[in-house]
Fold this sequence. Notes:
By secondary structure, this protein is α+β, with helices and mostly antiparallel strands. The chain has four helices and 14 strands. It has two domains: 43-142, no CATH class; 164-243, Roll (SH3 type barrels), CATH 2.30.30. It has a six-stranded antiparallel beta sheet with strand order 9-14-10-11-12-13, with no helix packed on it. A hairpin with a 2-residue loop joins strand 3 (85-92) and strand 4.
Amino acid sequence: MTTTVPEQGDAAQAPDPREGYIEGLEALAQLLREHPEVPLPSAGKDPNNSITLYLFDEPLAHARTLIPHMTGTSIEVDTAGSYYGVNVHGTLAGLSVRLYMKAEDVCERRVTGRATSPDDRVLQEVVEWQLPAELLDAVAQADEPACRLCGCTENEGCPGGCVWVPDPEGKGELCSSHFISAETLVEQQIVRCVEWNDGDPVRILRVQLVAGPDGETSVRYQDVAAQHPAFDVLVDRHHLVLPAGGSRG
Length: 249
């Protein structure tokens, strides 16, 4: 039997764990987009189940990169646990996100008092953690409401203009650029609307323009899993609904 020893250059490179993780997230997102009947993961759905990024290496640099893409941001120094930490909470394109940094890595430690014993022995220091100005400024700038899909704001809207529309998924701010009007709906299309099925996806079964001066549209829809009876509604032809993929484009 002949054994072939591969040369060093022929050895297969080990897969990059970071790239594999990102590809997995992209694959999961695509599956959820194509199958709106599949429930969402619990991580990232609300502030109680945030996706946490632990910023231990160059925390301020990473925070400055991430925070401008977040909305509804807030910052706190957590002194409840064994280790003092800095948490930045916010929303990133509909996902609840928490950035965690060690307080000692980003804050100035100030001793504001001391608890002493009757013989003047120091029992405990009273410490205040001073947040850096650059971190506070980044959070303040990111706190302006922004569309969770395209990032437009009140002062910098989409080309051609847009307005705020209630988010059927309740994940944050949404502008009208990502919605379609009722009169453009087609059968079997899957959409979301705040007033329909509690904002969960529905399948369009029929669309019919109603003759008359009011310009209304008759729409029949049903929950995607067809577990409940279909509903017929009469809406303005310009009534806005969100395609299940999240954008009309």
